[in-house]
Structure formats: C-alpha cells, structure tokens
Amino acid sequence: MVLASFPVMGQNAEILKKIQTAMIFEKKPSIISIPVDISLDDLQNQINKGLPDLIYEDKSFADNNYDGLKLKVWRKGNLIFTENKDGVLTYEVPLKVWAQKEITVLGISQAPSTDFEIKIKFSSRFKVNEDYQIETQTKGLGFTWITKPVIKSSLVDVPIGPIIGRVITSNLPLFSEQIDNTIRDNYSLKPYLIEAWNLAKRPVQVSEEYNTWIKAEPVEVYFTPLQSVGASLKSTLGIKIFIETFVGTPLYTPSMVVDVPKLKTVANIPEEFDVQLLNVISYEEANTISKRMFIGEVFEFSNGKYKISVTDLEVGHEKEYITFNIQTTGSFKGEIRIQGIPVYDPERKMVVLKNVHLDVKTRNLLHRAAAWLLEGTLEKRIAQEFGLPLNDIIEYSRKSVHETINSEFSKGIRMRGQILSVDPEQVIVTDEAILAVVNSRAKVQLIVKGM
C-alpha cells in the first residue's frame, strides 16, 4: 500500500500530479489483514430476530397419507447456542405445538385438540459464500419432550406422543431447511462491504494544515473459513487495496459502486501488513533549508591561508544526485558545483548526503584557478552539516496510518489497530522533488458487534 504524505505546502499538488503521470514510483497494492471476531451472543440475537414465530403448519387431516392430524408449531422462546466446536454451532429451540387429531370410536367421529412443548436440537456449520451471504448447513439432532401430548375426548384419552414424534422427526429436514433459508435470506455482509467500499473511495481530509487528503481504491476481498474460538466465530478478512494521498481540495466526485467483487476464500492471510508512505520534499523546501544552513558560512583552506564565504546557493538534481550551485566570495569569487547522493540517517532522522564531491567540470576549472579548493574542506562540511529533517514527516505518517486503522466503517463494524513500526527505507531523486519512502508495519482487528 502506498500513501504519499506531504509535509510542505505550495506546489505539492502539481508535483504529485507530475510524479504520478511520469510513473516515477510504482504504486503497489497491499493486502490488509483484518481479524474478524463475530460474537456468538450477537449472532444468536440476530438469528432470533429473523426467525419466524410460526415454524410449521399442517392444515389438513387428509395429507401425509391421511394421518388424521393437524399441527401448528411455534417458537416458544429463543434459539440458544449450546456448543461451539470445529466451526459447528449446536443449539436448541423450544417449541410450542398445537395438535388436533381426528378420532372415530364406535362410528362416532371427534376432533379434539391439545397443546404441548418440545425442545428441538440442531447443529449448523457457518460459512460466508462468495456473495458475502452467511450460509449454514443445518441438520436436526432430535428432540426432547417438555410436556407430552395427550388427546382427551369424551370417549377416550389417546396418547399421541409416538404419532407426533414421527411427524416431528420426519420434519426435521424441513425445519433445518427453514433455518438455512432464514439465515441466507436475512444475513449478508455485502451491504456493509458496499458501504465501506464507497466510503473508502470518497476523499477524506487528514490534515487541514497541509490540505492533505486520502482516498482508497479497494480491488479484491479475501476471507478465511470461520473457526470456533470460545464464544466467537473468528476469521480473517483480507482487502487488496491501493491507497494514495494528495494535496489540494479534490475537484471530483468518485463514482459510487452498487456491487463489489466476489469474495475469495483462502486458507490463511498474514496478520500483519506493510504500509508504504511517500513523502515529498520539494526542491523549493530543500533550497530554503540549505540556504539557512550555509549562506554566510566562512570556509578556511590551507590552514587559514584561503577563505571563502557563501553568498548564495541553489539546490537541484542530476540523475541520482542532489546538486548545489554555490556562489562564493573571498579568496575565490565565482560558482562552485557540489553533488551528493541523498540517504536516510536513522540516528539523526534526516536525509543526509553521501559520496559528496566537486563535479568534473568544476574540478577542471578549479585546478587552474584555485587548486587549494580541491583539498575537500567544503565537501566535508556540506556532507557533515547538510540534512533535511524527516522526524516531523515520520510522526505525520504515523498519525495518518493510526487514524486510518482506527475507524468505524459502519454501525457495528469497527477497526482497531496499532502501528508496530515506522521506518524510513530509501530516498529517491526525481525531476519534481526528493521522495522519502517510509515503511510502516501495522496490525488491525475488525470488531463485528451490534450490527
């Protein structure tokens, strides 16, 4: 993931545009790893809200091979999870049953009714399909009587427990299918993903001081199979994403999506991920810092025999080098050109120079006019004293990443994360600016609760 943070104002918006157009730095995606923790209490509450009160109804005495029985089955209470093991949830549902039995004794027909209670046990394996729907594979595990049914008529009392038992047992696959249909039709992560996708695409201002904005472009979504852990179902969500920042008020409105790519199931996703931040130091800013450092400085050569004073300088670049065109007065009045390769010094937290030397053209000139300048005093001082501070940039980068990974996508879906490290990696010289690349390693958790 690449973010571009901009610690200086002014021409940065135009600089970024030119850098992006020239493809100076390859923008690479990252897969953000987000552990997902789904509370069983929350899942249980959501399923109970979606399950209908009326579970089953048989309105005819004549169906089921003329069994002479009518039935209505309601939920008497909530579904309650009893076990969470190997990705399979076991649960019980208390039911109230009304039964009416057609009875004929001595040519006299009656249809007395009764009601009673049972508790049915199910097990379901949960998964998330490619369309982000929560799916279950449910099977009935049997039932137990809470109160046993007896039909009382004016002629005879008929214990119908065995009959009801056979009916309930034969309908367990139907009850299981109804649970699967209810969960599949009512519980989908897709609306949350679409909302998060569109929120990510919308530019968000992360720094008023530098008028810096951030936007993301998700590409793909990955998911590991749900696992049973204590009172939770856990998985890991992986989002392949491009992130970039820019300076200047956005002049466009991103197009909103109405769908997202299919979810891809994978075996595992690493917990930690890298964020790569691009920090732009304009040559204008480098000029300002360098002039503050060196204008008015006096340099002595040959044990004080010769002295020069810096009256002006200009910072530029040539290939991988930063160049200094230095105007001097004193023992040598004219222009001296020095160049060096910028690198990051972790102890000073600055961009400093290595391989500092007078360029070839200047060396030829000085050899004739002032050979004493070649002893290296000027180059050594510039190498020792030149530095573009990165500490503020690093802290700004840290703050940007921290705010990004500690945010609420939607009601009930929140990210909570920590930054493990922020380490500058390299310094790149471009035609437009000096780029300081900072690597950040982070770890986040996605909390799904109270959706």
Task: Supply the key terms.
451 residues; alpha+beta; 11-stranded mixed β-sheet; 6-stranded antiparallel β-sheet; 10 helices; 27 strands; 24% helix
Explain this structure:
With 451 residues, the chain is of the alpha+beta class. It has 10 helices and 27 strands. The strands form 5 sheets. Strands 1, 2, 13, 14, 15, 16, 17, 18, 25, 26 and 27 form an 11-stranded mixed sheet that branches. Strands 3, 4, 5, 6, 9 and 10 form a 6-stranded antiparallel sheet that branches. Strands 19-20-21-22-23-24 form a 6-stranded antiparallel sheet. Residues 1-10 have low confidence and may be disordered.
A few lines on this structure:
The protein is of the alpha+beta class and 451 residues long.
Number of helical stretches of at least 4 residues: 10
Write down the Rg.
37 Å
Secondary structural class: alpha+beta
Instruction: Give the strand content.
Output: over 45%
Low-confidence stretches: 1-10
Summarize the biggest pleated sheet. 11 strands, mixed
Amino-to-carboxy terminus distance: 29 Å
List strands and helices in order, with pairings.
Blueprint: E1 2-5, H1 12-22, E2 30-39, H2 40-50, E3 54-58, H3 63-66, E4 69-75, E5 80-85, E6 88-101, E7 103-105, E8 108-110, E9 113-128, E10 134-145, E11 150-152, E12 157-159, H4 161-170, H5 172-186, H6 190-201, E13 204-207, E14 212-223, E15 227-229, E16 232-247, E17 263-265, E18 272-282, H7 283-294, E19 298-301, E20 306-318, E21 321-330, E22 334-345, E23 350-358, H8 360-369, H9 377-385, E24 388-389, H10 391-405, E25 408-410, E26 413-429, E27 433-448
Parallel strand pairs: 1-18, 2-27, 14-17
Antiparallel strand pairs: 2-16, 3-4, 4-6, 5-6, 6-9, 7-8, 9-10, 11-12, 13-14, 14-16, 15-16, 18-27, 19-20, 20-21, 21-22, 22-23, 23-24, 25-26, 26-27
